[in-house]
Amino acid sequence: MATLSSVFDPRSIALIGASDQEGSVGRIILDNLLKAKGRKIFPVNPRKDTLLDLQCYPDIGSVPEHVDLAVIAIPAGAVPEGVEACGKAGVGGAVIISAGFRETGAEGALLEKRLSDARKRYGMRILGPNCLGFVRPDSGLKATFVEEMPPPGNIAFISESNALTSAILSWGLYADIGFSMVASLGSMIDIGFGDLIDFLSNDWKTTSILMYMESVGNAKKFMSAARSFALRKPIVVLKPGRFIDRTSLERSSTLFVPSGNDAVYEAAFKRAGVMRVRDIAGLFHAAGVLDSRKLPRGPRLAIVTAAGLEFAYAGAGLMATDALIEFGGEPARLSPETIRTLKNSLPPQWSEGNPVDLLSNTDTAGYVEAITACLNDPGVDGVLVIYVPMNTAGPEVVARAVIESAGKSWKPIIAAWIGGSQVRKARDILLSGNIPTYSTPEEGVRAYVNMFKYRRSLDLLHETPSELPERHALSRQKLVSLIHKALAEGRTSLNDRESKEFFDGYAIPSTPSRTVHTVEEALHEAGEIGYPVVVKVVSSQIPSPKDAGGVVTDIASDERLREAWTKMLKRVKERAPGIAIEGIALQKMIEPVDYKLVLGSRRDRDFGTFIFFGMGGINADLIRDFSIGLPPLNRTLAKRLMEETKAYRLIQGFRGRPPADLDSLEELLVNFSHLIADFPEISGIEINPLVISSGRAHARDVRILLETSPVDDGLIINYHSPYPHLIISPYPGHLVEDWKFRDGTAVVLRPIKPEDEPLAREFLSTLSEETLRTRFFSSSTNIDHEWLVLMCDTDYDRHLAIVAEISEGGRRRIIGVGSLHVDPESNSGEFALLVHDDFQRKGLASKLLRLIISNGIKKGLNEIEGQIMSENEKMIALAKKLGFSKKWEREGTQVVALSLKDRRVHSGAGHETDRT
Predict the structure, then answer these.
(1) Is the dihedral angle over the CA atoms 868, 873, 875, 879 positive or is it negative?
(2) What is the pTM assigned to this prediction?
């Protein structure tokens, strides 16, 4: 398959549909392409011999040279044949400007399928159809019929909307906003958001990506690419539809959520570290500040203004405060020490609080003293300085003072200089000093809150989760047999007993339950488990026994049990006549119940299975307090899932009730995520209520629904994957392997995980300078937290690191790491090996490299390569022994490569299917 460079960095371009007619799409695109630097342009039009003094060709096959990119602007009906011809001619990529495909109905959808099939046959990369194309201002390349060319810059803009793309190009030109790329995706039959993020991650000119997204396309690729990019540079997204399907989570009786549910998109953006904004202005406000080195550590903002109560702008500080609270920030509470400091330096009439109003007759020193005092206050995370052109101090002088103050603190300063031409020069001064500067207080506040939210997202991406107890081996086959049995009986859900077996396998506490068929059996079992008890009708024909009157609680005696049994059965037969009752579930009633929560999983067409958590009980639909997360979870993600609900504050102790054991609840959430990850056969689970009694959680009422078809209502799922229902690959436990050195020392070889950061730090910090130098080409590697996060918290689809672990005196120790970084663009990988000095020359490097080769084959890679110092003769010899050959060598470094194509065929490697 061709690479995206064929599309976005072509050396030769053919325009199919070129024209010399003034104002036509074919003429505008040709004019645009001819302005590109260092590109060969070939017009294609069967009715012309020349166009704009260029030789014109009747078809793509007649072009005498290789063509990297074809820009296609012909009627939709002719596009599939045009793509087929491009494939036969060896064209690497195409931009299809033409419209008239699936957006027009069934006939257009058939045309789109034909061109998609042609693309797959020849391995082409296609942008579109029905797109505006793209612009790369730095090289002057405009593969579009939009005539505007914005200035070069560091922002990339990717849009699903043609109209918005055109508007952004015009706006960038007007506002002098520079772009590294502007691209319109159109129908996304091939190139989507994930592909472009991957391409831009290797573009040093791009420091941030802005996106307008209506639908995610390939969610798995987007999540992998976005998370990888967001660890280093910001991504900001504007996605409309925040109130569409807003209540579908509560309305759904099938535990299935429609495509495009906004709450699921919000959870996905948070998980990937993507910053979401609410409007177009927010996109560019965010882009201007998120790559700042000074991101606030908290939401607490101090506001410094000097309007004075007698002037019209006196409310600027109050307006900023209102906006701060509305956008999710927090006005900083100044400490008594700060108040005293300001009292000693400011006029007696100052506001004595936040906002800090210095009054209109203040001078530059007053600004400096107020800013410095606020920055020194431990309760302040950032400062907004508001200037209005009514002060004794001039706007440019104050601007320079703000820049000087900012240089003395790690906390961010944002400026809002209100006014027109009077403050324009001052704004330029502030911007040149890297101070984010805005024309209204509200814009400044929004920028600050965006900075805080982005910092919080980064902190989540970089947070090291604590270790969980080791998972006990379970019999997946036994649990799968329960699912098959239920489906064979025509059931779409599991009964209470079967559900309890699943929960027992994953250490999820549930209330003791026994199925009985007569009142005498019920009386006997109640005597065994003890009163009070709950009785519940068991029937696969009743999705919710409660709705049919089939649940009675708080039964405290034999007499009450007999009475409840008779009345419940009568009630169920009246409300649901003709149903088959399979038994009665008898449960021990949990007392006291301090809190009722809900925990479950459902399936989204775009993002697959997700987890929800929140306030439970019969009022859950009314309260609608829930949060959403994407599995798999670790302890950090489980805690965040809880923290995003009001229920989290409640369960920490409310009106004399004891707090929940939050550590055990975190562990329960992680175990629950393991359960849903391990079983794509389960389409949804709901535990309502998940009761908290004396601090401990118990699953009381459980509903597990089963997947009944390979594709459920168009759900976008990859059924060739061992985890077809997940867009984030879980820990690949099937790769864990026991191995031994020749002397019998036991070694565990396993994929790395985020919780390994302390072990990884110890491993790296005890290596010799020579070992560090031969691996990292420098002996002064800075082993900080962010560096270790990149090493330990990996996307297992793209970066597989196998660690070798031993146990010494009861302590675990990492002694080696072999990693494989996958380049999705070229379908190749890069390997790296590092073995501790104490364990070199024992065969560990060979074992790790063999595992890397094996996993490269399983992933379907074409090639893996590695960069080795030329003096590292042992590593070079090992690579040669395992089939690598030298690719190139310069400046004391050589790259060795191994083709996996033949090995992949001979090994018959396929997709892993073992999820145990």
Answers:
(1) positive
(2) 0.87
